[in-house]
Amino acid sequence: MPPDRRRRPAPPAPPAAGIVRKRPPTAPFGPKCPTRQILDHVAGKWTVLIVDALAEGVMRYTDLHRRIDGVSQKMLTQTLRQLEVDGFVTRTVHPTVPPRVEYALTELGHGLRVPIAALREWIETNINEIEAARRAAAES
């Protein structure tokens, strides 16, 4: 049969009213796993520092940049955008000249402070053991 006369499969029928289709399962550690995607964002070093800084209150971009030593403008902008997309941060633009932009934690963002504080506490409790292990590894 010539290529233009081949039968194409019919597109899948839309679900019947009231039927909700579940998302196909994803590999637990695969790149499409929703938990992994959020964890990749939340566990980033700049995310933790930004959430900590915003825990003190509303901040402007330049204040955040000064507060977080070592973060480039590019990484700060990218991380703030992702935190906004994920619902952890709000961005408010005030119509002034020049525009004033402020960032604040949302309720969800404030909830993120709890596991971050727990992680900080664990690090502070175990820092001596971690540093000893690093020294031992460097000596060997």
UniProtKB/TrEMBL annotation:
Region Disordered, annotated ranges: 1-30
HTH hxlR-type domain location: 33-131
InterPro entries from the UniProt entry: HTH_HxlR, WH-like_DNA-bd_sf, WH_DNA-bd_sf
Keywords: DNA-binding, Transcription, Transcription regulation
GO terms, molecular function: DNA binding
PANTHER family in the record: HTH-TYPE TRANSCRIPTIONAL REGULATOR YODB, TRANSCRIPTIONAL REGULATOR, MARR FAMILY
UniProt name for this protein: Transcriptional regulator
UniProt source species: Nocardia arthritidis
